[in-house]
Amino acid sequence: MIMADHPQDICPVDHPECEALATLRSLRDENGRLATQVRTDPLTGLFNYRHFRESLQAELERTGRSGQPTALIIIDLDHFKQVNDRWGHEVGNLALRHTAECMHESMRRIDILCRYGGEEFTIIAPATGLAGAVKAAERLRRLLEARPLATGQGTLQLTASLGVAIHTSLHPLTAEAMVKQADAFMYQAKQTGRNRVCHPPLESAAASQVTTDERAALLG
User: Fold this and answer.
1) What is the CATH number of the domain that holds 156?
2) Is the pTM here over 0.90, yes or no?
3) pLDDT for 102-113, tens place per residue?
4) Does residue 119 carry a catalytic annotation?
5) Do 101 and 155 lie in a common domain?
């Protein structure tokens, strides 16, 4: 049997079965909306912390089955407290949404873009080695730097510090360890001048699944 998307198109008015179909359709739509809300950050439209944790664990399990690496990028906006203090929270919220837009523009459709909390964001990059993750992080960093945010109070220059972690079948990490590693590299970027990407060295065990092409691309 084929069920029409709109039961009212084929059912008599006030027919009990049609009313039941309409009710079921309404419940299905409402459940879908609620499920999306539970996993979405309302300010930026990105996935939220809950979805991030579940997705990262799922990707690490997939890595174990497929042998392909998984990369994690943590992004922290530079001097964001000063933005809120000087420009106000409304402009701060604009800056967060602007960052989300830049993430969408610079990343692939398969990448999982999340707001981690406050001014921190994360990107889970499936089937991505170290060089590919660093290249993606640099692309986002450059886009943020090159695209100031126009506000009613003036133009706001945004930059970010980014840290990269890599999980491979030869050098596996737990989800917690992966977050700690990416977070440590992000803080290294902060401490060494901000507006930069820090990551494991290519010679490390974490980079053991980097391809020759990736290595050449990263080293320029």
Assistant:
1) 3.30.70.270
2) no
3) 999 999 999 999
4) yes
5) yes
